[in-house]
Specification:
Catalytic activity: acetate + ATP + CoA = acetyl-CoA + AMP + diphosphate
Enzyme class: ligase
Protein name: Acetyl-coenzyme A synthetase
Oligomer: single chain
Family: Belongs to the ATP-dependent AMP-binding enzyme family.
Bound molecules: 5'-O-[(S)-ethoxy(hydroxy)phosphoryl]adenosine
Structural class: alpha/beta
GO molecular function, one term: acetate-CoA ligase activity
Length: 646
Amino acid sequence: MTTDSLSNLMDERRTFAPDSGFAAAANVDAGWYTAADADREGFWAAQARRLSWESEWSSVLDWSDAPVAKWFVGGRLNVAYNCVDRHVEAGLGDRVAIHWEGESGDGRTITYADLLREVSKTANALVSLGLRAGDRVAIQLPMIPEAIYAMLACARLGLVHSVVFGGFSPTALRSRVDDAQARLLITSDGQFRRGNAAPMKANTDEAIAGCASIEHVLVVRRTGSTVEWTEGRDVWWHDLVDGQSDTHTPEAFDAEHPLFILYTSGTTGNPKGILHTSGGYLTQVAYTHHAVFDLKPETDVYWCTADIGWVTGHSYIVYGPLANGATQVVYEGTPDSPHQGRHFEIIQKYGVSIYYTAPTLIRTFMKWGDEIPAGYDLSSLRLLGSVGEPINPEAWMWYREHLGGQRCPIVDTWWQTETGAIMISPLPGVTSTKPGSAQRPLPGVGARVVDDAGVEVGPGGGGYLVLDKPWPSMLRGIWGDEERFRSTYWSRFDGFYFAGDGAKYDADGDIWLLGRVDDVMNVSGHRISTTEVESALVSHPSVAEAAVVGATDATTGQGIVAFVILRGGQDAEVASQLRDHVAKEIGPIAKPRQVLVVPELPKTRSGKIMRRLLRDIAENRAVGDTTTLADSSVMALISSGLNPAE
Ligand code: WTA
């Protein structure tokens, strides 16, 4: 974040007290904070009882092997049973679980009874492929119901899913499949994007060519496009799943049985496989979904606009809402297809009452114009949520006015792939909200802002966000790399989890998140590491050296700006090819906004690239302090020779 936007943020003084009617009916009250403070483990045990356990735990938390936690020790449950079967057993089989809206307007209404049949059939199909509890299953699918069936079928059988966002390149998919040694890949023939069918299986075929661990590829027919077929390996979903029995008896697993791996960018080139387990994860996603979104399952229609390829889709489309018996909208397409009112049209059509999205989309709506939401009936909305990046006060105010009709509370939810569930957020009906602040750790959660030495800063002070107490949905490690788990999160401050985010307290002690303090960029709410993009760039034959920074961007939060030194004989024309090259290597989300060809990069005497100076150039600012540069004339050389190639 630039110094400018930071001082704007710190000047923000507006507050919005909860509406008394909302507060009177809210799921939580201020007493929850006191209860959790008085008896934290007792509080979490009470939250765990939202779920149905085959056998209860003997102790709530075992932290003796810190930083690897065990929650609900000895407890046994089946995650899919909790998300599906128990609602049907409670007589709610006819309740709509999912209003699925295809991009082109095709749709399916899926009740909890339907969901139970589909998940059971899918589970039987996976058993028939020889998969056994503990095996890994990679999933790369568009936002179609089969993606949810597949995840829940894995959970039901104790298989560990690794969902890979549909926009990731074959190279990115391959490294994830290899790292997890997945036995099965579930994908589709293609996916719809803005009315066009784009291939999917062609990419996954490329990704897994020669991958020894993959035995089968299960393919959903979505677009009907022609695909290549490998006999003996590839199986159509409709051939295998449709004919299966629609009943399946779930087996309970240990609370610490692995549930999923989800890869996320870190400060080095290799994505980290974040590991989550069953009992604690489901407890915290169910609790936070109930408390933060004030879900009333009988009447609310909930919509989270994330993709299931990200953690928000895992926790707040699949596991949290379904554990709570919610009725939700799942939308396959983009917000501007076939027109820019698409989200508002969907809110109106289904009477969406809770809407959860990312600041980047809110800023995009602002850009498209106030008259678009004004053209729809949005009066069903009663709560709005934000996630993925700091929300600037102006976007927050616009959200409140143009979607929330000045009446809906806004919950700005801070959390990460690693935390599994929401950690810091206002509580609707309890907290007086402030535009741009996530405010307080939830009841049961411990967070503070500390200085370099790990000492908590006072009111008005800034520093690093840390989590000072274990929480049920915390990551249990990085798949296959315990050392990296310890060094990334637990070595910076003794006894605290280091989140990688900068933060500040205001005079009331509320927390304001200020963006990443490491080499991770946040582009449209997606985490991308500078190193990952740099290694993609240097893998191109024309590039000798590359440095990448995240520059402030009015819509996407940050935009990727790459500085490259070309090998001899190359001309600056190559810059535009380099953008495509990165998209091909990682995925379109990692495509640099700009590629600048430079003769030199600013380095310290020890050879470390000074990104701070490059960020100054990328954000059109006067270049800051250059005294630690090995060669202080380099910045002048870079600035004078800039080729603003796009
Ligand atoms: C950022 C997404 C400010 C933060 C759930 C974090 C936020 C990273 C917020 C995690 C928020 C997420 N305010 N920043 N409300 N929510 N972030 O793993 O930098 O994709 O570390 O998880 O997003 O991104 P991830």
